[in-house]
Amino acid sequence: MTLSRRIFMGAVAAGATLGPGAGEAAWATGRDGEAAGAPGGLPVPQGDGYDGSALWLRYAPVGDRDLLRRYREQVTTVIVENADRNKVYRHTPDLSMAPGSAERLMESTLEAAREELVRGLRGLLGRPVRVSQGPGNRIPDGAVIVGTRDSSWAVRRSVPAEDLASLGTDGFLIRSLSEGRRRFTVIAAPTEVGALYGTFAFLRRIQTHKPLGELDISESPRVANRHLNYWDTERLYAGNDASGTGGLDGENGAIFNFAATGDSAGLNLPLVLDRYLVAARAMASVGITGITINNVNADNAYLTPEYIAREAALADALRPYGIRIALSIRYAAPTDPRFAPDTLTEEQMAPVSPDFQAWWNRKARQLQESIPDFIGFTVKANSEGQPGPQDFGYDHGDGANGMAVAVAPLGMTIYWRTFVYNPDVDSDRLKRAYLEFGSIDDEPRPDGTRGRFLDNVFLQTKNGPLDFQAREPIHPMFGRMENTNQAIELQVTQEYTGQSTMLCFLAPMWEEVLKTDTHATDGEGRPLERSLVGNVVDGTAQGHSATSIVGVANLGNADNLTGHHFSQANLFAFGRQAWDWTLDSAGIADDWVRMTWSNSRDVVDTLVTMMMGSWEALVSYQTPLGIAHQFQANVHYGPGPSESDLPREDWNPVYYNQADSVGLGYDRSPTGSDLTAQYFPALQARYGSIDTVPENLMMWFHHVPWDHPMSSGRIFWDELVHHYYAGVRYVSGMRETWDALEREIDARRFSEVRAKLAQHEIDAADWRDTCVTYWQRFSGREIHADD
Ligand code: BDP
Asked: Fewer C-beta within 10 Å: the chain N or C terminus?
């Protein structure tokens, strides 16, 4: 594997920003009661000190003069009628930004759309645009109209109702239209949130230098509930945490301040910080609809009145952007004395008990009183020490349904996680979840249907059967749970993929997962017409209308919000793929690079190429050919293949690598643990034989003999060594490539990425050397470090 590299000796950036004088126009005041251009936030500094804090919404000026001239002709006036008519609900009467904030709280979704256009166009076009609240009786040349048929006369006049009807709640259309010689653009949607999404899509076209002339775009998301789970301070790699422990100024590194101390004690919610709104705008720009704001190993504090008040303020701030909140809860919360006198005894904790259900109904009601659009609860139960229904003699179906019954009257949903691996179930950790959940999905019901999980339950399942490893086969439950709503959970934060040090673009991994064929069959064993994992997730495989995709997010209080500048790309890509999993990840990378770094062809081509190989490189130097979980205990960053003394057998690298003098890898074929039997027949056969298993999953399913012949012509041992070396070489290539871009990238971000890549290279080599040396003890063969 090599990284194709361009070296730009002396090249001048084609996309260099315009010099002073480019923004010639002053703020315009129009007719018909038009407001002078609304500020739309402070401009993002574009120079060498830029810190990445605007994510991909930096709106750098269009550097190509011809293109700029065309855009300025095509976009002269923003028209958002009745932006203040549908004010969103606000619970917190004195909701306010922290002193000195640059962002501003929005009161409606259309206001958020208008402000984004004003801000974005001012940055991109290098001058303010005219803002009009109504077009009078003539739509001006160069107008960009945003709205719904309810909000906007101009939309009513130019977009037939039936064109919007099929778009669904979040869809939008963007059209270039004309009247006489006047040409204008309409961004219209059935809902105001759809109009906001269309606004971001329109801005993205300019950010990526695409033509605006003949637009006829209509888009709707494939998946309805596009959520982030935020793990708070655990697995947080984006914390501005100088000391390595407590965060800066009393902040703990999390993006939202609930319990900051010291100098930051005055910056807790309900006060709203700029970064919350930058994150909200970024999330909305890729269509995120919800966020579970606390860790899955949940702290009951989030259910106390004091915290609920803070959550309500956060929900208020996010609401104009179409983002709703949810909470992770601890199943046994009702027994916590801090809720006294409203607590339950152990005897009342059966999920079928009316007392249990009434308690959760009361708690959910309290939340709904302050957060009327509260989504519901994410539940990690009977997993890694968390309490659950099994502690009281019930199974996951009873537990999920008990909570679902409690919250159903309030219109809420339960996201019940399937990340369970009770060692009593099977000796192979990877088989355990399906063994616990599959039979509940199959259970016959009195009405002749099957499946016990209620309609307001989603089972939330990680992409693979282990735990967010850099490469896993798909989880066998996808396609197997035909009677249950299923959400897929992907990890955006890079717990096992280099944290905030390694540059690893994850979109190709998610693309691989979502486009893997489950080969699912129907009840009679006939192949389904649509059977990719993406089809299972978007409901088209088995006819589900409740659909959801969840990303464990990587936001923190770092200046650039994600720790590594390139980690921003993973959040961006997750949102885009959640909206449309059929997208090509290179196209997503291309957009992100243009929006984040530069539209210079050289920069775009170089960075996209570099990013696209970065995940496969990481797999290569960490866990090639299907080996998994070789991390140092708990930290999950560096290599620890020899570790064998962790408190649970299935936390130890040696449990996964099974290294011995014969070979390496875990036999999960029919002669081994037979995990393969959990897949549909076509995958069973493919994975079950060492002759047909894809080489990149070989050790996942087989104990591979050191001399096994590989497709390259090498024996397995040499192939393994080759992968480790090739992976590290790729990282060296990334470092050199980046160095060659110095003249095209602003100074601060350039040097921050350079420092990360230098460490990345050292740590990748550590993976290679630690693992290869350790495996050699078993293989007894020579290390051929090829090049
Ligand atoms: C593991 C993480 C742990 C999470 C767990 C989960 O190390 O912090 O709590 O996943 O998903 O990967 O519940």
From this structure: C
